[in-house]
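Go through this chain for my students:
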Amino acid sequence: MSIRDQFDITKEYAYLNTAATSPLPRYVVREVEAFLQSHSRFAEAAWDVWMEKVNVARNRCAALIGGDAREISFLKNTGECINTACSMLPGGGNAVTTNVEFPSNFLPWRIKYSDLRVADVADGEVDVSSFERLIDDNTEVVAFSEIAYNTGARMPTREIAEIAHDHGALVVSDAVQALGAMQMDVREQGIDILCCGSHKWLTSPFGVGIFYMSSELLDDYDPPYIGWSSLEDNEDFSLQNTRLANSARKFEIGNLNFPGIMGMSRSVEVMLKRGLGAIEDEVTILSEYLMDRLSELGFRIITPREAHGGIVTSDVKNSKEIVQDLLAQRILVSSRNGLRASTHFWNNKEDIDRLIEALRR
C-alpha cells in the first residue's frame, strides 16, 4: 500500500490544506484506537506501558528536530508552548518578532513586552537585515515562524539566530508550519526553544504540542505552572516532594494526551523511516509544480521560490468566495492573504491539476 493510500480523504477530496489541518492516515488512527482499547480494557493496569510509549515518542520527536529526549516535553498545542516560553522570560528588555505571525506567536509577546519590535517581512522575501536593525543588547527574545502561515516564506533561521545570540537574546521558533515537511535541526539552526503543534504537517491528532528547550537553558528557567507530573519523582505525592524534573518533563503539569501522543509518535516514526530529506524534496517538488501551474493562469505568486515550504499563496481577489466554490467541488484550500494551498508528501500532481482546472473554469 502506498503512503497516499493510507489517507482515506484522497478518495473524496483534492485536499491541499495541510497548513490548516492534516487529515489522519490510517496508521495513526490505528494507533489512537489501540490506546483507547487499552484504556478500556486495562485502565491503570496499563500505566507503565503507556509511559514507556511516551518515552518512545520523546525519542522520536527528538530525532525529528536533532535534539535529545530530555529536552522534549508534551504540552497541548503551539500556543501553549509559546505562552510557556513567554511566561518564563523577565520582560524587562525588548522582544523582536515579525509582521507575518499567526496570533499565537504575536499576542503573548505583545502583552508582555511594551517594547515589541516587528520586522517587516510581508513581501515574501526575507531580508536578514530586517532583524539586524531591530535586535540590540536589550533584546531578550527573537520569536518567529519557521515558515510564515500566510506568505509561505521560509525564515533564514540560522542567520537570524547568530545575530540574536551575539546580543545575548534567545531564539524561539514557531515550527508548526515546517516540522514534518521540512528538515529541521535545532542545534544547527541555533534554536533555543521550539514550539510545534501536532495537527498540521505532523499528520497527527489535535491536542499535542512539542515543546523543546535546549539543555543549556533547562537549569536557568523554571516552568510557569507546575503539578505532580513536573516532579523528578512523580510517584511521590507527599507534600515534602518539591524537586522538579531535571529535564523538560518539568513543563508537563498533569496527565498527558496519551492517544494524541501515541498517534503522533507513529506518524513521526513513519516520517523518520521515509527520510526527512526525501519528504522535504517531495514537498518542494509539489509546491513548485503548484507555483508553475498557478503562474500559467496568470496568478501572482506571493510565496518566494528561493525559500519556502509546502505553502503556496497567490494574490487572488475574492479568495474567500473562491474557497467556498472549490469546497463545493471537493477541493480544499484556504484564504490567507489570498488563495493558500499547501501540499504534503502524500499529495500528488493530480490533486494540483484538479485545483488548476477548477480555477480555470
